Amino acid sequence: MKTHTAMDEVKRCLGNIERFDDQVNAFITVLSDTALEEAQRADEDYERGGGQGLLAGVPISVKDCIDVAGFRCTNGSLFFQDHVPKKDALIVQRLRRAGAVIVGKTNLHEFAYGSTTQNPHYGPTRNPWDLTRIPSGSSGGAGASLAADMCVGAVGSDTGGSVRTPAAINGVSGLRPSMGSIPMTGSFTRICPAIDTVGPLGKSVDIVARMFGVMAGYDDDDLYSVRHSWDDALSQMTDGIAGLRIGVPRRFFFEDLASGIAEAVEEAATDVAADLVGDWNSLKNRMVTQAEAMPAELYEYKPTEELRNFAEQLMHITGAQNNTMGTLNADMEAPARPEETGDKAAVIQAMIDSFDYGAAVLASETSDSIQDVIECSYLGTSTKARCVYSTMVHTWSEYGVMTVYHRLNGLVPPASQ
Known about the structure:
Blueprint (H helix, E strand, L loop, with lengths): L5 H19 L2 E4 L1 H16 L11 E5 L26 H8 L3 E6 L11 E2 L3 E2 L15 H8 L5 E6 L5 H7 L2 E2 L22 E6 L2 H11 L45 H12 L4 H8 L19 H18 L3 H4 L15 H13 L2 H5 L5 H7 L5 H16 L4 H8 L9
Parallel strand pairs: 2-3, 2-6
Antiparallel strand pairs: 1-3, 4-5, 6-8, 7-8
Helix pairs in contact: 1-2, 4-5, 9-13, 9-14, 11-13, 11-14
């Protein structure tokens, strides 16, 4: 920190957490004591002529599915409310070596299984720009912590947009890195290993570039890590945008937007890409801007009974469409039902069963694994729904996910199928 000390910056961020986090709820765990200790060490190191790391004294938050030694890592679920890792994730180790100060663990959609950060166990995170709105997700706490000036950089994870959308919706910068560039070791993000990533968010592009430079690098313990020398983004920060090309989608991109969004994108694109104005003008007449941004109240969880009914409908529909379902997996061992839904290991196994056993789980008369997941008090409804939906997708992809969805919502008459 050039204009003030690391201690000043960390105290500023911790002060904002104390003032605003009761409303925003960006953090699950705040590391005030250790953050102040780290800030003091950073200042002392600087006075001795050190402290020249890329992130020296920079307050950074870490999504609570990434390990920070000595502090619980909940993954946004009650299953892991008492889980305390003994070792930092590799990226946290690298951030610390670069001088970063870890100020806390941020809230997320349970198990990163969603994009609203409406967490049923640790409370919903709110958008600091409008507390009635969502911050997106699943790294909603990361984006909100930056927007509320509770940190300068944040670590999130991204499979289908969980860094990018919170960055966009909270008005900060974010990067989903190339696959294999930043190690996943010590991260619990397990949605789709082939495309799961950990990525940086920041108050500025400069911070994001610094974080990427620090976090990127090969890790032999990460199956998907790529042995590659990544470009030095920081050295290119002053190069400008000459020679770059900007792609503008012609379909879907400008449909059903909140008022003003399309105009803002148009203005920005016109400013930075004058060579695209001809094509851009052809899109103007097709812009749709009447849709309002979604308020948080629209993302309420379905009651357990409603989800149970959904599962029953799902099993009825898929079973009726394929009367051989019960014999397709006759040789598979049916998953065992936990004797007590309070048995965490058993319910986790039931969750795994819901993905791996497919039709066997749905069809077996002796298996109630889906029911175990639905009734488990340790899981939020959003996560339970994901288990049910994923079973449907993995088992009945050939039947058509949208057909099932439309049937359940009365949009497709059964006789037409």
